[in-house]
Amino acid sequence: MGVSNRSILAKADLKINDLLTDGGILPEAAAKRFLQVAVKNAVILPVATVVPMKSREQRIDLFRFQNRILRPGQEATALPEADRSKPNLYKATLSVKLFKGEIRLNKEVLEDNIESENFQDSIMDAAGKAVARDIDELVANGDTASADPFLAQLDGIRKQATSNLVNAAGSTTTKTILKASVKAMPTEHLRDRRAMRFLTSFDSETDYRDSLADRATAVGDRFLLEGVPATYSGIPMLGVPVFPENLGPFTNYTEMLLLDPKNINVGFWRQIEWETDKDIVAGELIIVVSLRMDVKFAFEPAVVKVQNLKVG
Question: I need a surface site. Which of 31, 150, 248, 259 has the fewest CB within 10 A?
Fold first, then answer.
């Protein structure tokens, strides 16, 4: 049995190590593919701005012209100094934190898979899907004051949204709440409503969908029967599985964000590490994956947060 274990583990380890260079750092192509798998299988990441970082810190610069630029002009005459425009510069800094995952594959799993030509890809895909779920949770719910060591590494988008707040006061998600959130958004950020999204929990999205379906019309039936995307004022609603539904005094509240999701910047340091080891006695191949990431809004004042939103 011991020899069999060693043989199986050695073959699996050899296949996995074909991915590795430079002491466990994935080659650039493999790291890019791993991130592509993670982005594809997440909910927030595909609509956010993913930033491949070349160092552990990277600054996000945003130029905005908040006031009028155009003035009455005269040919061959420069505008007077008082009429000249300067952009407002906003800065945010991505500063990555380290996260690790340990994967253990037992002898039976390895026996069934190591002869496959796609063994490496299968491991990468499975790990990428699991990492996607974890990244979504961190991006949404990170809170440096959290008792959860994982979530306490950084502040996520719910924690960072502080400028434009709406108190739902225990209401479920209805058009009245959505109207209040749209009105709370500074008008200058609503010019392209097609780019905006409501992000909320699954049950919150379901509550709004049901309120639309309550209308005794063919359109109402479509929301109930056909899974038509729920929208308000041309803005789609996205149900996010990792948004909490246990907030508030009765543990049945959630939150909602109104924003352009491209305002969410998720930075990944390009060096993703995979390292392998063997536990001969247990007959397990051990894979440790390490990545560094951070999340910041490029411009937080363009985000509305609805609090005390009842679900169920």
Answer: 150
**Section 209-228 average pLDDT:** 63
> For 152-184, what is each residue's pLDDT tens digit?
999 999 999 999 999 999 999 999 999 999 999
Q: Is 75 helix (H, G, I), strand (E, B) or coil?
A: coil
Dihedral class, residue 41 (left if φ above 0, else alpha if ψ from -120 to 50, else beta): alpha
Q: Which architecture characterizes domain 163-264+299-310 according to CATH?
A: 2-Layer Sandwich (3.30)
Q: Residue 268 CB: number of other CB atoms within 10 A?
A: 23
- Report the alpha-carbon distance of residue 281 to residue 24 in Å, rounded: 24
Strand order in the sheet with 304-310: 164-167, 304-310, 253-259, 197-200, 235-239, 231-232
At 138, the amino acid letter reads: L
Distance (Å, rounded) from C-alpha 207 to C-alpha 131? 29
The two three-digit tokens of residue 270, written as one number: 């390009």
Torsion angles phi and psi, residue 58, rounded to 5: -150, 130
Reference 261, options 96, 92, 44, 101; nearest CA is: 44
Contacts of 58 (CB under 8 A, 6+ apart): 51, 93, 94, 267
How many whole angstroms separate alpha carbon 158 and alpha carbon 304?
10
What is the SS3 assignment for 195?
helix
Condensed to tens digits (0 to 9), the pLDDT of residues 273-312 reads 888 888 888 888 888 889 999 999 999 999 999 999 999 7
Cα-to-chain-centroid distance, residue 2: 44
Nearest in space to 257 (alpha carbons), one of 30, 44, 82, 90:
44
For 212, other C-beta atoms within 10 Å of its C-beta total 19
Q: Where are the beta strands (DSSP E) in 65-163?
A: 88-95, 97-106
The answer to whether 264 touches 48, Cβ cutoff 8 Å, is: yes
